[in-house]
Amino acid sequence: MGAFYDTRETSPVDERERDLFARLPGFVQAACERAPAVARQLQGIDPAGLADRAALARVPVLRKSELLQIQHATRIAREGATLDAERLRVFGGFATVGWGAARRVYASPGPIYEPEGTRPDYWGFARALHAAGVRPGMLVHNCFSYHFTPAGGMMESAAHALGCTVFPGGVGQTEQQVRAMADLAPHAYTGTPSFLRIILEKADEMGVSLPSLQRALFSGEAYPPSLQTWFKDRGIQGFQAYGSADLGMVAFETSAREGLVANEDLILEIVRPGTGRPVPEGEIGELVVTTLNADYPLLRFGTGDLSALMPGASPCGRTNLRIRGWLGRADQTTKVRGMFVHPEQIAHVLERHAEIGRARLVVSGETGHDVMTLQVEADAALDTEAVAATVREQTKLRAVIEIVAAGSLPNDGKVIEDARRYD
């Protein structure tokens, strides 16, 4: 196994794009036949027409909150369903597999239930482990949880796909983790960066050296440059991967340390929060993923996380799309004067007034004296009274409309900024 996990990582960009969209129509058609919720999501869109990104952008975004609501409603509606209908009752009609065909079922907070299929490296993390330097014959000390959520299984199945042995350390029991590492001499760690730091500090306290541990794949929390340097000073090269229980591994860090490279068999988009409309390359928005997973075919799944596409290919030689990593949460719903204001409502205002470029709703004032100001990039001739009327129609609240210069609003993905003082 060389520098790359497989030849797809270095395939020409246009070849990868053609392959993905050549596969997508047939994939979606098969999903519609086995997963009725996917058919409903298409709302009359012909799967055969999903041949490019513009066509895909017409499919409504499925956000995590909607998936939770649909699963919950379906479980209530289908109580007492037969065994064959479990994939409908438990997974809300989004999965094509049920008991027997699914190897495991996991629960994420909500709860949202996710199936695990039977194919090797089902969650797709082997590619990320390989980029982190893990190779066949190594021992991986896995400190992700094996309880309820798939995190532990994600890394274990990836390590097995690479031909590695796994120690299922799980979470907690720091002193025992140190003892196991000292005895077994693992080559790599998988888990959160904060827990590995706790383990290493405990090892220092115990006077135990752990020289074998030189590689790590982190996920589940931020991995800032300061922490990267901390591990490097201890001889550990740590890399990060971004994924979820719904999608598996989405993107991973490489030796270039320039953003995260997208996994294969995924279509990544960055959309304006509250909408399904893709934003220009480099602009921050919500990360939306279509995964070609036949067992759990999620189309245009809104992760709720902010990111941005990076231009060009990675210096490491991998040619797939890159994202800047996690840049915050897209759900900026804010309560103003007792009313919830959603990014979707601001998106509707922009749809009504095409002369507006970007916009940002700033909520200011002190507790009990909320002030809404909609900052808009537009020409001075904009009819601000008409815009204010649309805001009131959408939110049932009054807002001041402030025209600002084109390009002056920050590129941080925020549609609603809560600038109130609570002191």
Automatic annotation (TrEMBL):
UniProt keyword terms in alphabetical order: Ligase
Domain AMP-dependent synthetase/ligase span(s) in chain numbering: 153-290
Domain of life: Bacteria
GO molecular function: ligase activity
InterPro entries: AMP-bd_C_sf (IPR045851), AMP-dep_synth/lig_dom (IPR000873), ANL_N_sf (IPR042099)
One Pfam family named in its UniProt record: AMP-binding
PANTHER family membership: BLR5969 PROTEIN
Name of this chain's protein: Phenylacetate--CoA ligase family protein
